[in-house]
Amino acid sequence: MGKIVRASPEKRQSKFSTLRDKSFILNETTPFFIKEEYKTLRTNVMFSIPSEGCKVIGVSSAQSMEGKSINCLNLAIAFAQTDARVLLMDCDLRLPRQSSLMGLDAIPGVSNILVGMNKYTEAIKKTELYGLDVILSGDIPPNPSELLASDNMDKLINQLKQHYDYIFIDLPPINLVADTSIVSKFMSGLILVVRASSTKRESIVKAISQLELTGANVIGIVLNGVQVKSRITGKYGKYSKYGDYGNYGT
Ligand SMILES: Nc1ncnc2c1ncn2[C@@H]1O[C@H](COP(=O)(O)OP(=O)(O)O)[C@@H](O)[C@H]1O
Ligand SMILES: [Mg+2]
Question: What is the pTM of this model?
Answer without folding.
Answer: 0.89
